[in-house]
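Researcher: Can you fold this with zinc ion in place?
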Amino acid sequence: MNLILLGAPGSGKGVQAEIIIENYKLAHVSTGNILRKEISEGTELGLEAKPYMDKGMLVPEDLILRILGKELASDRCSNGFILDGVPRTIVQAEALDKILTEQGKVIDRAIYLEVGENTLVGRLTNRRTCLACGKVFNLVGQPPKVEGICDSCGGKLIQRDDDTEATVRKRFVEYENKTRPLLEYYSRKGLLFTVNGDQPKTQVFSLVTKELDSLRK
Ligand SMILES: [Zn+2]
């Protein structure tokens, strides 16, 4: 089973990806992790990508797509995969379709975790990040044992500028605008499955399971 996972930052995408992977034994494919893998293994593609990563520059799209193609063809993905953070644009979606066609594969579902703007604001503005080790807490869902102090390392917890209400609202609108064409693209192909992500994660997963299990029949 080959899946695409779409959802704004704070939609619970990371958590759902983890549960889906575990239950369906899929390979997790994100551009970040495949780029780092190619670089750490010192492959030809990795060597090509390294200078961009070292300088903090964007890796060119065609290089990312070549790395993606290689990954999707690998044994790790033979039982299926879940794409996370890619495709981001119609151009990438079309390129992905071409890659998959060449490999004799298809996308089975594009799962979209739809979350209301106010839910995201609630979740993200409660986020606190450890200055020292980067661990993330949530004042509502996963509070630190001692206020303002990291459970793991004793570091100071801060609210990142990214997690203030104004930034979250701005990012939400940007995400929606950027993602709408992709939703339409997969909807036209009859592959879009939208889940209401405002619900608890177990409920979200149970809806996803229902949909995915119906594909297997
Ligand atoms: Zn810490």
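Model: Folded with zinc ion in place. The beta strands are 2-7, 27-30, 81-84, 109-114, 127-130, 136-138, 157-158, 192-196.
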